[in-house]
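Page header: ASSEMBLY MODEL / two components / 774 residues total.
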Amino acid sequence: MTKDKDDSKKSGQKKLSDHECDGCKINSNKQNPYNELISLGKSVVQDINKGKNPKIEMSVRGLSNVFYDKEAKTLALGDKTAQRFFFNVAHTKKFLQTIEVASICKNLLDSMKHASLRDVFYMAKRTIPNTKINIVDDQKETDKAIEDLEIITDFSRECLHVNANKMGSVAGKVIVEDSGDTIDWSKLGSGGWSIPSNVEEIKFKKVEAKYVVYMEKAAVWERLHEDRFWNKQNCIIMSSQGQTTRGIRRLLQRLSVEHKLPIYILTDGDPWGWYIYSVIKYGSISLAHMAGEMAIPTVRFLGITCDDIVNYDLKRHFIKLTEQDISRMKQMQAYEWFVKNKDWQRQFKMMKEFNAKVEIQALSSKGISFISEKYLPEKIRKQDFLD
Amino acid sequence: MTKDKDDSKKSGQKKLSDHECDGCKINSNKQNPYNELISLGKSVVQDINKGKNPKIEMSVRGLSNVFYDKEAKTLALGDKTAQRFFFNVAHTKKFLQTIEVASICKNLLDSMKHASLRDVFYMAKRTIPNTKINIVDDQKETDKAIEDLEIITDFSRECLHVNANKMGSVAGKVIVEDSGDTIDWSKLGSGGWSIPSNVEEIKFKKVEAKYVVYMEKAAVWERLHEDRFWNKQNCIIMSSQGQTTRGIRRLLQRLSVEHKLPIYILTDGDPWGWYIYSVIKYGSISLAHMAGEMAIPTVRFLGITCDDIVNYDLKRHFIKLTEQDISRMKQMQAYEWFVKNKDWQRQFKMMKEFNAKVEIQALSSKGISFISEKYLPEKIRKQDFLD
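Prediction written out in full:
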């Protein structure tokens, strides 16, 4: 044990001085994810040495401890805490899993390498010595352990060197430094920069752009990119394809917090597009403990709104709402942050009356570059956003 | 009509001399997609002027006209042709749709802009003047029309400026020129270059890398990238997340044809991973007419094979085959190109005996960088590939 502790300490010191991760620094009250993991280990060892039942203490996750923080304007975790004991049949496996994953993360930080969630599962999937019992049988178990460690250490899993999937592209007048390279987002041809799953260690060297448009659809990004929209408007264009990954959300948040750039969300005119906006702005229940790093209360919704459907004559591209659309919309209508928001309630009402949604590409019926030459410049000039 | 023809001619000449698209040049016997569209229009106009029933002639698509070309070692279209007449109630709507989409493509080429498949749908979705009938009601109709135009013009839809979805990242010692920018794939930080949906206009300026590893999973790409695998091995690493887009397949094909780079496919050890390999190598039925541009007969399968499962002791990470897995495997086993391939038949047999598959990330159980430090270098050194 002593040997292990000394090793950790040495590496810990090395990491402490080496820890140049801009993303981590800004978002946590703690100094260093490595030291937090060491503290966790030490407290367990102390319990053992004192002959106490080893325990881990952490905030309760889940609906019962999630509330809407009106001041921060995001979802957040309440102050309910729970204790997990090693000598408790209901806790012992989870206890073991948390410690195992903490040790994997410590090794990742030590070796300065990053793993995917799936990697971590396979790294933890081994039998307990002298038994036939696996430490984990399912990725859900390691995923949960990682979320627990986010709460325990107050660092995101990205800071613990665990990444989710990589997705999305970005272009605009920004120069970053990353992994020893200097990358100019305005000089990357038709492809743009491929957004990494983990953006914590990126350094912004020069940010000329004045705002960010984040869009859900890669095809719309390619349209705006081909039209050099980011150049004409001096902005950043960013997109995923499908889900808004944590890498993208953190990149948006860093641009918002560190460079005070306004962020505008561009989606289909449907409940799912609006939901994307809601999650980026207010956070989600499952990630409430990460709201400080993930939610971006300042983002605004650019479109497609129901007013856009009227003003830009898109009714002839109506697609009837499905049952899923309607139930998603009802859910949102009742969200605490939307319930007193007259503008959004008006949108929900209009869409319900339409009983229809509109895709963003419907704008192409007006001309291939209508979106970049008329719709967006007009909306942005008029500051026609929803909050 | 005359005015229009003159305009086209003028633009056509402009395009002809401007047409610097490396991808198009190499893959079609024809010279210029623009001129092919003009020819189509002219032949219809000639029919009208002669008082004939306007017709479009093209190869038949679909299973009845698809065969395995043993010489080219890809799927290909046979020589059955069909005629589509304007004055035929069964043909007239499709005729109109083909001409409408041809005109949209001509305008895209004229304006040097690219559209997504969805954009083209919305651009074509309008009522026929003085009627309440839409030219198209569903994207399937414009998608079909675009495939027809691929056959009629002998140019891919990318050459006709219609793009699919964008996905994937690339890194390696390659310098390309694209949209006026010079991009060094080895200097793009942890993100890499985001692969555009359309890679026809990319120019390869310098290709130092000696081979390409294409992997299905972005998380594996990030692993290899962090380990600078492409630098140590002097190769290119490329990945999508999910499907292998046409942009990726064309990029692989251009590196194979224009730069003679060997291409190795790295997937999960399961029937779906193997199917990815089959489609990249031999093409697919739905894209048989594009085999010349899409299929890459020289690609080889790197892993995960059933032998890898044995040799690298991965059996403890077995996941039971599902019914879908088994039926996909049976289908492949019967493919003309696999049926006489002893090595592959052996793989199918082994997996059937295992009644289990293994994910590529199972390699992480041996250490986070086992894949880049041992598995891949060993396999590549021994040239342990399947053909």
